[in-house]
């Protein structure tokens, strides 16, 4: 039975990845959360699942993190911030802590094979994937998520400097809550929009493929037409741009609708 660790398991992407993994009884999941109470309130069925164990800890809790990722085939790194928060560093914290936990596992079990890291990122970081987007829309996107992208970029630089660690980057376009429309993996283009469930199915396919996609930037795109449009995008852009140009406003507007 293959075991997978999911960090950020209370989040939308992390939760969707777990739902996808649970579709096969041949997979076991170690779900890492800051609060297992929150995890099981969001997903009551998971508490009794024989295929899921929960680990409670922060990203600073290296011992618990090492326990959670020990013996896994892949670690889905889904702890993230969805808001353009000035100075956000969740991606960097997650990257540094996972690397520390892997180093700890090397000491604990020198012969053990270490897991591959499946890192949630964004196509906005990858000019090759976004070259079909209208230039103005891309320009706005880069600024509306500037603090998130800076964090993701630095986290990736840090992880890629460790060439002893297996890692793959998942870089989707805009995400939306929708039913499944099937998925494809692409190294050529992103598609906005993609449902969270289709993203999760793509991430699991990448993880199950082992080393095949090592070090690559993979976008997941819908396999068929019809993914819902997220009509909240203009609002997301407006709020993100306001924070980009006037970061001091963040404490006052962060409680606006997500
Ligand atoms: N939305 C899009 O259109 C889009 C497009 C492309 C890529 N993305 C990627 O998706 C990410 C957003 O993912 P999402 O929608 O799943 O976000 P989300 O629903 O807000 O989930 C974030 C997860 O990260 C955890 N987390 C946040 N801060 C943490 C911290 N300091 N320490 C430990 N855990 C922490 C949260 O835990 P708690 O529950 O404890 O807070 C939660 O589990 C973006 O940053 C970007 O990388 C999004």
Automatic annotation (TrEMBL):
Q: Which organism is it from?
A: Saxophila tyrrhenica
Can you name this protein? NAD(P)-binding domain-containing protein
The UniProt record lists the NAD(P)-binding domain at 8-206
Tell me one Pfam family matched here: NAD_binding_10
Q: Which family does it belong to?
A: Belongs to the avfA family.
Extract the Gene3D superfamilies matched here: NAD(P)-binding Rossmann-like Domain
Top-rank taxon of the source lineage equals Eukaryota
């Amino acid at each position: 039975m293959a075991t997978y660790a999911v960090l950020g398991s209370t989040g939308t992407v992390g939760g969707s990845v777990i739902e996808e993994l649970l579709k096969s009884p041949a997979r076991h999941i170690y779900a890492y959360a800051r609060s297992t109470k929150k995890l099981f309130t969001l997903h009551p069925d998971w508490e009794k699942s024989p295929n899921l164990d929960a680990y409670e800890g922060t990203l600073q809790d290296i011992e618990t993190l090492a326990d959670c990722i020990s013996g896994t085939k892949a670690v889905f790194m889904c702890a993230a911030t969805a808001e353009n928060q000035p100075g956000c560093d969740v991606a960097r914290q997650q990257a540094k802590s996972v690397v520390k936990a892997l180093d700890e596992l090397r000491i604990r079990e020198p012969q053990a094979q270490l897991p591959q890291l499946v890192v949630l990122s964004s196509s906005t970081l990858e000019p090759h994937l976004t070259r079909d987007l209208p230039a103005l829309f891309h320009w706005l996107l880069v600024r509306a998520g500037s603090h998130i992208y800076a964090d993701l970029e630095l986290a990736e630089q840090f992880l890629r400097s460790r060439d002893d660690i297996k890692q793959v980057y998942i870089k989707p376009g805009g995400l939306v809550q929708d039913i499944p429309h099937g998925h494809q993996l692409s190294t050529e283009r992103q598609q906005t929009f993609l449902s969270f469930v289709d993203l999760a199915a793509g991430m699991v396919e990448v993880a199950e493929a082992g080393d095949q996609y090592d070090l690559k930037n993979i976008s997941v795109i819908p396999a068929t037409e019809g993914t819902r449009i997220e009509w909240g995008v203009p609002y997301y852009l407006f709020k993100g741009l306001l924070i980009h140009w006037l970061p001091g406003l963040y404490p006052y507007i962060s409680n606006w609708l997500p």
